[in-house]
Amino acid sequence: VTPLGFTTDEFTDVEIHYNVSDPDSGIKETYWSIGTYRGGSDFISPTKESAHDVPSVQLGPLFDGQSYYVTVTTRNGANQLTVVTSAGFTADRTAPQVGVVL
Question: What is the arithmetic mean of pLDDT over 94-98?
Answer without folding.
Answer: 79
